[in-house]
Model the fold of this input.
Amino acid sequence: MKLEYSDVKKTAAKLKFRTKAFIHGKFVNAASGKTYVSLNPATGQPIAEIASCDGADVDLAVKAARHSFEQGVWSKRSPAERKHVLLKLADLLEKNLAEIALLDCLDAGKPITDCVTIDAPDTVHCFRWHAEAIDKEYEKVAPTSPGNVAMIVREPLGVIGAILPWNFPIQMGAWKLGPILATGNSVVVKPARQTSLSALRLAELAAEAGIPEGVLNVIPGNGSVIGAALCKHLDVDAAAFTGSTEVGRQLLHYSAESNLKRIVLELGGKNPQLVLEDAGDLDYIARQAVNCVFWNMGENCSSGSRLIVHRKLKDKLLARMLEVAKEWIVGDPLDPATKVGPMIEESHMNTVLGYIESGKSEGAKLVLGGGRTLKKTGGFFVEPTIFDEVKPSMRIAREEIFGPVLSVLTFDKEEEGIALANDTTYGLTASVYTQDLSRAHRVARALRAGTVSVNCFSEGDATTPFGGFKQSGFFGRDKSIFAHYQYTELKTVWMQLA
Ligand code: NAD
Done:
């Protein structure tokens, strides 16, 4: 489908927004009646007034979810029946793909081309994959003595709180809800305050698809208020979270202080792209390396924000990357030609600019970008930025910036490159480039990350688990059948035969 800027703008202008909380199958105002204004990060202008939920709404949503779970309207339906409903939801999302894509484009400032070609289709595919998986999975019978039969079965956990980030609003929603719903749980979703619109529309489509009342609830509002209330709630059995390591750490406290609910965390990253001296085609690598740090404005947990390149290749590769970077046009996210939209909000833009200043003051060499741009639009745009001659001790080499900022580091020996790549508290993704197959295997196993890509930048696909080592996660894997396990309890049914 070829998108035209004028058509996209016209369609965006006509969009209707769902702005109330979705509890027990209905859109309702926050119990307090309060609202907050959601801003378009590309203009700084209001998009919509959204229900600002608090603890009272959390209680209502959890009560609805618990009631639906205990009634068994979803939890006790056969896997094939749940599959049927989730496939219908996927079909409805596909039918409304342009609208879903636009909601995230407006709310998060994500380029429309990415929303239409990546986020929204991946969302559809994700629901389909998890739906299709559930009636293909068999349970187990333990190898006991002949006098016993022991079945090992998985059962839904119960009520799950799903807390979403703003960088991939609908897609992260699907990564959580696909497996949570497929395995028969009820759920209370808390989208990020900045990006609630697509989750609210998803709830409406889920009801249309046949997800029963109370099974899927969405409460928008402030994370530190309702996110915390949800995670401390005594009637919530698990919290699944994607977001910052800082807030993820907080969730473990909430669990310990309340009912020891299961906590599943997908967190941040400071991901290395390791280019060995036998890396091969530098034009191709330059494209991969630029894409993986500027895509989604660098607001991406798997952003390859540290390029660790063999000293012999560095100048050539960097020169090519600077050429490729010219294609990364910053602009209005509604324009299909735009590849880089704004930062999510002003405070985040200032944080990113603060990191750029720290890179300059700590002595890194700025070779691209380095400032705010398109200020007149009122949007929060930052130029794609590259620093060369970065030292491992610098903040831009150590901390997750979550913006379009690349740090280039060099090494001489393979062991040194691997050590630099692993010199981080994070461990979400890593890439390695080499033409030597044995070396590729060896280095991929030596890199401490949940997903290692060889000769590309990738997060895998729906069939592969995604989550982090070290402080990039806690017990959490999105996607694949492994995501189902974390939303189920393992039960042994031990039988004595006569
Ligand atoms: P964030 O931690 O600020 O917010 C994430 C969610 O938590 C939001 O819904 C927010 O409202 C809520 N929240 C905030 N304070 C809370 C509290 N005290 N208790 C409970 N919930 C609270 O993160 P963000 O800024 O939305 O997202 C960016 C972060 O997410 C980055 O660190 C990024 O790396 C990470 N991320 C990770 C993955 C992954 O799969 N590992 C994917 C996308 C983003």
